[in-house]
Design brief:
Blueprint: H1 5-10, H2 15-34, H3 50-61
Length: about 70
């Protein structure tokens, strides 16, 4: 992937190409979802905080009393 124009234009090599791609993809998805009219949830890598990830998934999947 190092030879791809996207990676070359950013001076990225090796693992940094993959990390950079995912960081930019994440920012793009978050901008898109911020303007999306329907409810959505994004979950950061559950390996970082599995309990928090599961909590966010459950909260998004379970309607609240006010939203029911």
């Amino acid at each position: 992937m190092t030879q791809r124009p996207w990676a070359r234009s950013r001076g990225l090599q090796g693992r940094d190409v993959v990390v950079g791609m995912y960081l930019e993809w994440d920012a793009l998805v978050r901008r898109f979802l911020a303007g999306y009219a329907h409810p959505s949830v994004t979950v950061d890598d559950p390996r970082d905080d599995r309990s928090l990830a599961l909590q966010r998934i459950r909260a998004a999947a379970r309607p609240t009393a006010a939203g029911a």
